[in-house]
Every structure is written in structure tokens, then in C-alpha cells.
């Protein structure tokens, strides 16, 4: 990354930090773009070269995990490999150098959304974007048809939502991962049994 890109990335982070401080102090609705720009020592016009809206500032890292998951899927040669690989990915998510910051960023985002109910719609849009992105990647890699890819993507996002629930911390991450995947396997077993009986 060149000097110019590093300066832009640093300024972008300064804007995010300034906005988060103001949101924590005054609430999302009560903070203007002008106030954020002043706190970051820039003009509102400059702020808009980095972000289109206040919500974009909070959701600035929303696709980091999606990109990592898409990369994971692109490395698979069979749909049978996707689920065990995804399980391992989730189990090690907060520990891997490549995903440690993305995990922290997502946890921070979820905390912000929980404190600011006006962001719920954007939050649900984010997960819908994850489902679309994962489904499309599975199809592009020729790992699944449209319906199978959609079901896989839905399950992956459901697990992400459970793992990023407010009560999950880095201290209980491994235990939560085991619990979630065990329960999901139990449901799959029960579903298979029911379909055999029918």
C-alpha cells in the first residue's frame, strides 16, 4: 500500500473513530454529518468522499467477513468440503491473523446496532447481502445449484448471527462454536429421520 493509500486509510479510520465517539455520547439520531466532520477535522464535503451516510460509517467493515468467506468457498473443490471447512473457519475466526480484526469489527458493529435501534434495517440488509454473496459464490464455483446454494448461504449466515450474538465473547467463542454446530447437526439428523419415515 502506497503512502497516499495509507493516508486515506488513516483518515477513514479517524472519521470512524470520531463518529463512534459522538454516537456513544449523543446517540445516532442526534449526531450530524457536520459534527462528525468537525470532530475529524475535515469538511463535510471531504467526509462524503469517504462515506455516503452516517450509517455507512458504522457499517464500514460490514463486508470484511463476507470477503473472507467467499475466498474460503473459492478454495473448495466440492460442496462436501464447504461445511467442515466453514466449521473450522468459524472455530478459529477470532484467532487467525487474517480474520482477528474482522471479528473485532463485526462485534463492534453488532454492539453499535444493539445500542441504536434505528440501524436495524441496515443490519438486516447487511445479512441479506451476505446471503446473496455466499449463494452467488457457491454457484460461480459450480459447487451447488441455486436452491442448494441458497440453503447453504442461509445456514452460514444463521451461524454467523448466532456467533455474533451479544452474549458471545472471545472467552466463550470455542464453546459456543461447538454448541452451535452440535445443535445444527442434531436438527439435520432429526430432519433426515423424519424424511425417511415419510
Look at the helices and sheets and give the structural class: mainly alpha
Beta strand count = 0
Question: Could you give a short account of the major beta sheet?
Answer: none
Low-pLDDT regions: none
Instruction: Estimate the mean pLDDT confidence.
Output: 91
Can you tell me the number of structural domains? 2
Shape: elongated
Rounded to the nearest angstrom, the radius of gyration is 19 Å
Number of helices: 10
- The helical percent reads over 70%
Strand content: under 5%
The ordered string of helix (H) and strand (E) elements is HHHHHHHHHH
Distance between the termini: 59 Å
Domain HTH tetR-type: 9-69
Protein name: TetR family transcriptional regulator
DNA-binding region: 32-51
GO molecular function: DNA binding
How is this structure best described in words?
By secondary structure, the protein is an all-alpha fold. It folds into two domains: 3-58, Homeodomain-like (Arc Repressor Mutant, subunit A, Orthogonal Bundle), CATH 1.10.10.60; 64-197. It is 76% helix and 0% strand. It has ten helices and no strands. The longest helix has 25 residues, at 173-197. Residues 32-51 bind DNA. It comes from Loigolactobacillus rennini DSM 20253. Keywords: DNA-binding.
Quick summary:
This protein has 198 residues and is an all-alpha fold.
Keywords for this structure?
Arc Repressor Mutant, subunit A; 10 helices; about 0% strand
Amino acid at each position: 500500500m502506497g503512502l497516499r493509500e495509507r493516508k486515506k486509510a488513516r483518515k477513514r479510520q479517524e472519521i470512524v473513530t470520531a463518529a463512534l465517539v459522538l454516537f456513544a455520547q449523543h446517540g445516532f439520531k442526534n449526531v450530524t454529518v457536520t459534527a462528525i466532520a468537525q470532530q475529524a477535522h475535515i469538511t463535510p464535503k471531504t467526509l462524503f468522499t469517504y462515506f455516503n451516510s452516517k450509517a455507512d460509517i458504522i457499517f464500514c467493515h460490514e463486508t470484511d467477513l463476507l470477503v473472507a468467506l467467499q475466498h474460503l468457498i473459492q478454495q473448495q473443490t466440492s460442496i462436501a468440503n464447504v461445511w467442515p471447512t466453514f466449521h473450522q473457519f468459524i472455530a478459529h475466526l477470532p484467532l487467525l491473523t487474517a480474520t482477528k480484526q474482522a471479528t473485532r469489527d463485526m462485534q463492534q458493529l453488532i454492539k453499535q446496532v444493539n445500542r441504536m435501534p434505528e440501524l436495524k434495517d441496515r443490519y438486516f440488509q447487511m445479512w441479506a447481502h451476505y446471503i446473496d454473496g455466499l449463494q452467488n459464490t457457491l454457484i460461480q464455483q459450480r459447487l451447488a445449484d441455486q436452491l442448494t446454494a441458497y440453503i447453504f448461504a442461509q445456514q452460514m449466515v444463521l451461524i454467523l448471527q448466532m456467533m455474533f450474538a451479544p452474549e458471545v465473547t472471545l472467552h466463550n467463542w470455542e464453546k459456543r462454536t461447538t454448541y452451535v454446530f452440535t445443535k445444527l447437526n442434531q436438527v439435520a439428523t432429526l430432519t433426515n429421520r423424519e424424511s425417511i419415515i415419510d
